Amino acid sequence: MVRIRLRRIGAKAQPSYRIVAADKESPRDGRFLEILGFYNPRTNPATIQLNEDRLYQWLKNGAQPSDSVEQVLKSAGFYQRYERFKQGESLEVLLQEAAAAEAARNTTQKTEATR
Q1: What is the span of the domain harbouring residue 33?
Q2: Does the predicted model carry a pTM greater than 0.85?
């Protein structure tokens, strides 16, 4: 079974994550099938970059998102667009809307200091 989950990258005490499609049995930072996005919770607001056309494809083919990825996708507004995709709306229209939402979401960000 394929899961869509977070893969930790970044230095010690400075985590950022890749959103990847991986086999359920592979370890957290182990082998994966494809990189689907990027998530950095340390910026204010959090940086979220998604490859939405590939996310649609993986979800359509039965991949299950982890709980943490589900929260990230909901905060990015992906699930509203995915519901419209399942109802038959054009993928091109949804991808244009996603690009506009990402541009608005990732405008000015400051990395928060640690400790």
Answers
A1: 2-106
A2: no
